[in-house]
Amino acid sequence: MPSPLYQVDAFTDVPFAGNPAGVTLLTEPADAAWMLDVAAEMNLAETAFLVRTAPGAYDLRWFSPAVEIDLCGHATLASAHVLWSEDLDDATELRFQTRSGELRATRLDDDRIELDFPVNPPVEGPLDDRVIAALGVAPVRTAATANGWLLVEVATAADVRAASPDLPALASVTEHAVVVTAAAEPGSDADIVSRIFGPAVGIPEDPVTGSAHCVLAAWWCHRIGRDQIEAEQASARGGRLTVVLDGERVRLRGRAVTTVRGELLV
Question: Do residues 152 and 242 both lie within one domain?
């Protein structure tokens, strides 16, 4: 039986910006190898696979074109957007069972969706010199998380925007994604700027990365002096999100736009 299939631009309110994600609704769990084939066919940063378990409750898995992903913000936002915009679920809060525990999505009054994710605090310390060389940036501070995210803070937002890493070299020296970040330019309506590179997991540069902001929230909020900050991801497509640090949780707020609606026939 064909499965509904959508392509959604997440963390944007206009089409052809933000981060595109695939969303597939299944009637029962599927084989991981098959889901990976579908994700490779979609050739997006991530494709989400949903199986409804109860009203407002779903099992959710994410795949890049190369691997299964432990946590994906933009494809979760895209999933919630599809369920609500297509009138597939009328729950005011959606619950997703994932490899990262239970995640929740809530509809806000301004048409944004708020995701409730776990914080992922980075620990400051040196990184492999080969990672820095492959990035081609001058680090101010560096850090890593317990589950492998690497973070490199540079001096200015201009340095983030100008970064041009050697992606094959980066993929050869780390299997993890790398965040390059700085405070936003003076006068900007954003507080922080970032770019995310993950060539080893099939994502050379991710347009907008919700899970990275679970790291960035812990890195920046206390230094800025606010629990709520505005974040710009300075990829070619660009994306914006509001980030709220709430104890051991991070709330990510953004919008999404459906660009493709169809059926998966195989």
Answer: yes
User: In residues, how long is the chain?
Assistant: 266
Q: Give the percent of the chain with pLDDT over 70.
A: 100
The position carrying tokens 């509001």 is 242
Amino acid at 131: V
Q: Is a pLDDT exceeding 80 seen at residue 1?
A: no
The three-state (H, E, C) secondary structure of 171-202, written as one string:
HHHCCCCEEEEEECCCCCCCCEEEEEEEHHHC
Of 111, 96, 91, which Cα lies nearest the Cα of 25? 96
Say whether 49 sits in a helix, a strand or coil. Answer: strand
Same domain? For 77 and 152 the reply is no
* CATH at residue 84: 3.10.310.10
Range of the domain at 163: 123-247
Q: What integer pLDDT is reported at residue 245 of this predicted model? A: 98
Specify the number of domains making up the chain: 2
Same domain, yes or no, for 153 and 97? Answer: no
Active site residues: 46
The mean pLDDT value for 205-212 works out to 95
Q: What confidence score (pLDDT) does residue 201 get?
A: 85
